Amino acid sequence: MAQEIKMVYGTVKQGLSQLKNSAELKSSLPGHISGRNHLNVVKSIEQLNEDIKELTEAYASVLAKHIAQTESAVSAMKETDENISSSMK
């Protein structure tokens, strides 16, 4: 019993393109909110905001790498499909 996997390359590339556009994450958290306020909670909030910003940047970087790897894998699959197809003719 033969099993066939079909991939619609245009749809996959379109999905990856949309993911790439949405992966451009920008942190809109304020950097320094304390001004002349010296409360510990304000310092904690500023540190949390900085940590969130760093995590967001790291996530965006990892996501961009995964998108690039997926695009490469899809291209390799398409090339393999074309090679197999041409050898069967």
From TrEMBL:
Species annotation? Bacillus inaquosorum KCTC 13429
Q: Which InterPro entries match?
A: DUF5344
Q: What is this protein called?
A: YwqI/YxiC family protein
Per the record, the coiled-coil ranges are 38-65
Q: What UniProt keywords apply to this chain's record, in alphabetical order?
A: Coiled coil
Instruction: Tell me which Pfam families the record gives.
Output: DUF5344 (PF17279)
